[in-house]
Amino acid sequence: MTRPAPDLAAALRDAIGEGQLLFAAPDLAGYDQDGRGPGGAALLVARPRSADEVAAVLRIAHAHGVAVVPQGARSGLAGAGLADGSVVLSLERVAGPPRIDAENRTAEVDAGVPLSALNAAAAEHGLTFPIDLGADPTIGGMIAANTGGARFLRHGDVRRSLLALEVVLADGQGTQMRLGNPVWKDNSGLELKQLFASSAGALGVVTRATVALQPLPANSVCALVALAEPAEALALLLALERRAGTLLSAFEGISGTALDLALSHVPRLKPPFAGGSPPYCALVELSAGDAIPADLLMDILGEAITPMIEDGRATDAVIDEGRSLWAVRHAIPEGLRTAGAVIACDIAVRRGDLMRFREEAAAAVSARWPELVIADFGHCGDGGLHFNMVWPRALGPIPAGLAEEVRRLVFAMVVDGYHGSFSAEHGIGPRNIDHYVRFTPEPVRALAGRVQRLIAPAGIGRVDFGAGAEDGSPA
Amino acid sequence: MTRPAPDLAAALRDAIGEGQLLFAAPDLAGYDQDGRGPGGAALLVARPRSADEVAAVLRIAHAHGVAVVPQGARSGLAGAGLADGSVVLSLERVAGPPRIDAENRTAEVDAGVPLSALNAAAAEHGLTFPIDLGADPTIGGMIAANTGGARFLRHGDVRRSLLALEVVLADGQGTQMRLGNPVWKDNSGLELKQLFASSAGALGVVTRATVALQPLPANSVCALVALAEPAEALALLLALERRAGTLLSAFEGISGTALDLALSHVPRLKPPFAGGSPPYCALVELSAGDAIPADLLMDILGEAITPMIEDGRATDAVIDEGRSLWAVRHAIPEGLRTAGAVIACDIAVRRGDLMRFREEAAAAVSARWPELVIADFGHCGDGGLHFNMVWPRALGPIPAGLAEEVRRLVFAMVVDGYHGSFSAEHGIGPRNIDHYVRFTPEPVRALAGRVQRLIAPAGIGRVDFGAGAEDGSPA
Fold it and tell me: Which interval of the chain is the signal sequence (chains A, B) (predicted)?
């Protein structure tokens, strides 16, 4: 590695053009924050517009001994796209129109294209990229984080829809490589491309991907069910899976506290239940092609829910086409943020353990920090849980270090007690790398670090998957 | 590497027990053939019964400088499980009862358990491992090959259902490692376990896996549709995807010739169409939970097919619960084998290119080898095609080298002309490694080879993913 040279900027300017290099503090500010707020410190921002320009930026930065962090829409939550004195390589201009192949049900899409733009293009063909998120990340960011979202239950994460990738390797030479083909079925080699899904930008820069699309459902019906006990959520889930099979497209859980915080802090919402918020509720969605009418979907939901109301396991239910119910679900993060400082735990356990886990975790947290308001919600259908807590605004600023202490306690319960995941869908970044080191066995970290150094010998991104392992980190 | 020592057998016997080592030629014969017939030459067969014993076998073989080939149910088609003077490490005794977690919809299953045994255990809970195959491979073999099968359209390949793995690394020390957790959503590190799916046994030995299960459909209805033209298959597929969405669980294509060969050579079948075999037919399956009655599924099929019959795009259709129709589909390979020597091409192209490809490939093959009977069938719904040909029995033995020459022609059309896959679902092994070298760009092979050597430095299995690459192979 050579030292940063004064001609770095000149070389980059020659490679990608005068206006595509940002230095001034006001220009950089936006690039230094992500979905959790500020946290970055960019040396400069480079905005290449093609794979060739991305390769040039990597070569130049490497030659000048400057680190590079690839960045998408800055909606990440783990900090993996924020710089620490390094060059931000923004993919925002690698964003040509998505090429939809309607017969193949695929899209070839540049890494900087936002999810919303891909879905707008797909919708013209009656198709959708079925990863449902509150945020609007770029496709490249979605691959780096392997995002899941609210329809994981039916369609899985980004990995499951990933057919081919174009990448620029962080090997010092900016080598470009195509991994995979634009076809659905392919077992013609070692599966290298899947390493990039969930790689936190630490293996190279994805510049383009071919992803599988799904038919856009013609009919969709939702129910928000007020449950007498949280445990009834699993019973409802299992009944619906048996009855409705693959028509079940989402099964979300919302604690009474999370619902209350959304309703009291997000004025546009109106309370779904006349009798006040229940201890727990489930947001259920069935969706189908146009051969299955919405009325039938409503009947299926009704047949599952009515007996629960009759015998007191559910206390109320709202069934409709879902817009207002999803609005409640999507308003929860805003409700929590408005109520105070949020301590977020993005975890997953076995579906059958979910309610026992949340009770045990709530008891452990409340015993130690009675001030914290526990307001969890999440994806009951796949065992994912946003076990989030709020330090109420009225108590003033959250004490330094508290959030990390709480997370350590919760994550230890998840991993040691439940063989669960301490990062179900947000991935690894500077904000949770310490937990990665703590909860990942040393031999696994050592192997991951070796794989990372082999694929990205020049180094890229913010995450060292070999952190703390015996044979050392790349740095 | 040390030289093979005479005490290899004694050391293995001490590690796994007297009766679990096979040497005699009659005992070895069965272990030297797979789904395509003979081809192996085992030095001996070791049958460990646990991960610890697997690790011991790897350590001992390595210390004695003897190569090891992991083997499952020998149903593979690429030869990846056959030995070449090496030790066969059979997983057949690593096969405890599958542990089904019905609430989580997962199974923890030993690598040597056959698919049929996993599905029998899952069915007791109303669940299924949704990889539908003609053969009955072990779970470990399915992971090594990343099998797809006839319901890929809805449920994808093994990779998509893979939650966690226990592996023994081929690092000379027999290091055991657990990769992943028994949860559906996990993004807490670099995704190493996916490298093992489609690894052809060349990275280490999978001893146990946690896989996701799906609800067993309560109702299922099939149609075999005789099409006036092959191109009508795509129209029917797209209509059904729009109408039926995720209820569509299979969409297979069968050429008239493949149908004829099955009907004339498999006596148990009866012809589905009174008017003789059409140029092409589609086998379509809809399946659902018990909220969607079979009658409704039948109506949906009827509504899609009737207009096609009325305007002449389809000439006939049989709709029933599917048993006899799937029997026709599954009898095709037997029909072809009985008719002569089969030249199999397991390829995939974009769905929209499938019919154009098969016409072009058929024209090219027939022009050069008019004796070959082209009898293709496959998975129209995912672009996978068994572009198979028969050298008729009446012409005597197939000329030496012909099969490879035909495959080279067909694969070149697939890869160069269509950006398709020359190995859609059977994976890589000694039988197609030359095609891997030919069709995989050198930089990709070089990278794959480096990853393989990093993870399996002691070497294992039959495939060198770095074959022919500049920085050399492990051997």
Answer: none
Count of domains observed in chain B: 3
pLDDT band at A352; cut points 50, 70, 90: very high
Give, for A402, the enclosing helix (H) or strand (E): helix A402-412
Contact B315, B278 (CB under 8 A): yes
Place of tokens 């495939």: B463
B204 and B232 belong to one structural domain? no
Q: Are residues B133 and B173 in the same domain?
A: yes
Span A186-201, average pLDDT:
97
Amino acid found at B274: A
Q: What is the pLDDT of residues B189-223, one digit of tens each?
A: 999 999 999 999 999 999 999 999 999 999 999 99
Is the pLDDT confidence value at A475 over 50?
no
Q: Identify the domain containing residue A73 by its residue range.
A: 8-90
Residues B343 and B404 in one domain: yes
Q: Are B329 and B252 in contact (CB under 8 A)?
A: yes
Identify the domain boundary among B90, B122, B155.
Answer: B90
Q: Is residue B85 part of a domain?
A: yes
A 385-424 residues inside an 8 A Cβ radius of B: 419-424
**Closest alpha carbon to A182 in A112, A105, A98:** A105
Query: Who contacts A370 (Cβ-Cβ below 8 Å, separation ≥6)?
Result: none
Query: Please, which pLDDT band fits residue B428 given cuts at 50, 70 and 90?
Result: very high
At residue B346, the 3 state secondary structure works out as strand
> What was the pLDDT predicted at A6?
65
pLDDT in tens, A196-255: 999 999 999 999 999 999 999 999 999 999 999 999 999 999 999 999 999 999 999 999
A448 contacts B187? CB cut-off 8 A? no
Tell me whether residues A451 and B190 touch, CB distance under 8 A: yes
pLDDT in tens, A265-294: 888 899 999 989 999 999 999 999 999 999
CB A386 within 8 A of CB A346: yes
Check: CB of residue A335 under 8 Å from CB of residue A266.
yes
Indicate whether B307 pLDDT > 50: yes
What is the CB neighbour count within 10 angstroms for residue B19?
8
> Does the distance separating the beta carbons of A179 and B444 come in below 8 Å?
yes
Q: Are residues B287 and B160 in the same domain?
A: no
Domain membership flag for residue A123? yes
Instruction: Please report, for residues A31, A114, A201, B84, the alpha-carbon distance to residue A79 in angstroms, rounded to integers and kept in the order given.
Output: 12, 19, 11, 50
Domain boundary among A395, A418, A441: A418
The answer to whether residues A83 and A187 belong to one domain is no
- Check if the interface score ipTM surpasses 0.90: yes
Instruction: Tell me phi and psi for residue B178, to 5 degrees.
Output: -105, 125
Distance of alpha carbon A309 from its chain centroid, rounded? 34
- Across the interface, do B350 and A103 touch by the CB < 8 Å criterion? yes
User: Do residue A253 and residue A390 come from a single domain?
Assistant: yes
DSSP for residue A79: S
CB-CB contact of A297 with A288 (8 Å): yes
- Separation of alpha carbons A174 and A187, rounded Å: 27
Which residue in chain A is spatially nearest to B379 when comparing CA positions? A185
Residues A178 and A255 in one domain: no
A242 contact residues in B (CB cutoff 8 A): 126, 215, 218, 289-290
Residue A267 to chain B, least CA–CA distance (Å): 33
Please count the residue pairs, one from chain A and one from chain B, whose beta carbons lie less than 8 angstroms apart. 306
Do both B282 and B410 map to the same domain? yes
Minimal Cα–Cα distance from B66 to chain A, Å? 24
Residue B432 lies in a domain: no
State residue B243's pLDDT score.
95
